[in-house]
Amino acid sequence: MAIEIVEGASAATDEKARQRLLASSEHLQMGIAFGALPDVVAQSAADLVDKLDRIDQSNPGD
Prior knowledge:
This protein is mostly helical. It contains 3 helices and no strands. It starts with a helix and ends in a 5-residue tail after the last helix. The relative contact order is 0.14. The mean pLDDT is 94.
């Protein structure tokens, strides 16, 4: 199943896709671990948006 996720996200061959998948996975884990703490989940969501923006604005290889 993990292989299908990585391949489906093009994360095996695309660095930005790999970074997006990792950032999303980290956010998901924070939600699972700290779901009872809405402030922590909200901060994690804000952090995810910031990370995705930085990834999208970066040049390949940065």
